[in-house]
User: What shape does this take?
Amino acid sequence: MAVSLKYLAERPAPLAPHEEALVARILDEQNASLRLEAPRLTLDASPLPDAVLLHGSTTLPAHPLHALAALLHWCGALTELRRALPDAWWSVRLDDESVPWDDAAGYALPGMDDPELLAALPR
Assistant: This one.
């Protein structure tokens, strides 16, 4: 069964041109730095409703360790995007579960920083 990471950012004002460029740069850099064979982080290209800045979803790999490695990477990418658009309201979900936000650490699920687990991840 496929697991998806879903993301949404909203605010009343649309993205300014410099913000669009910043979001595109972050996505390009984060997608290029993922070393796994996994779907890339993309934004829905369809017309967005009012107040929606960006949204999309990424399906995680089926292999559990690859899925965790991709999840760690994409949580880092979404953390960078959220920090680039700090005045937006954000929702990041793993299927139906909210991914918690921490001002210092960003997006992460409990236990994702376990050293033994991290050592087992593909590089």
